[in-house]
Amino acid sequence: MSDRRDGAPEAALDAEDAAAPVDGEGGDAPSPDGGHAAATPSTHTVRLELVDEPGQLLAALHPIADNGGNLLSIYHERGNKTPRGRIPVEVDFEATPERFEEIVDALRSEGVNVMQAGTERYAEEVTLLLFGHLIDTDLSDTLSRIEACESASVADVSLAAPQGTEEASSARLRLEARAGETEAALSAVRELATEKELRVVEPLTGVDA
């Protein structure tokens, strides 16, 4: 097996070195009673966001193997960090469509942030501003809780803060939302801002031309 990305900053790890698929669960086996043929496994990609701590990668691979995914390659982008300071990891594996859905659900159930799954992409983008005591109210926690909303991912953060924490600061957030779920993402931000007494300046949505 070779890395799909020539010249990558860090070679992809062989899946066999990280985790092994469950016996015989690379795909649904044909029914022994001569039933319909099983769906053909195809290659899928998931892009995950992991905490930079020992064991996190292996823990994230277990839901894939345990649900019948046949791991192909792992691209561990240690040279890059997400806005929350975590490491993006791209995993390729084979699975039937049904098992692929089960794997994605299992990853999310285990608390793994799935930034992209297969052809599922964040198709909408929205930029908003947060004003208030962002540092005192724990900006890292704010970003983590926005990310916990599965409708969106924080693509970029730009913080403008005066010296010290007595004065209010501002943060420009660029969110990538799933198609049709921008309003759900904004609602999550509004609720969090209300809780932390922050002010949100957001773009107009749902306005007819």
* Coarse shape: elongated
CATH A-level architecture of the largest domain: 2-Layer Sandwich
Question: What's the CATH C level of the largest domain?
Answer: Alpha Beta
- State the major sheet: 5 strands, antiparallel
What fold name stands as the CATH topology of the largest domain? Alpha-Beta Plaits
Uncertain segments of ≥5 residues (pLDDT<50)? 1-36, 204-209
Please give the count of helices.
5
- Please report the distance between the alpha carbons of the first and last residues: 53 Å
Please identify which CATH superfamily of the largest domain we are dealing with. Answer: ACT domain
Q: What radius of gyration results from the CA coordinates?
A: 20 Å
Main-sheet strand order equals 1-3-4-2-5
Q: N-to-C SSE series? A: EHEHEEHEEHEEHE
Strand percent estimate:
25-35%
- Helix amount: 10-25%
Helix vs. strand class: alpha+beta
Region (Disordered): 1-41
Organism: Halorubrum sodomense
Protein name: ACT domain-containing protein
Domain ACT: 45-121
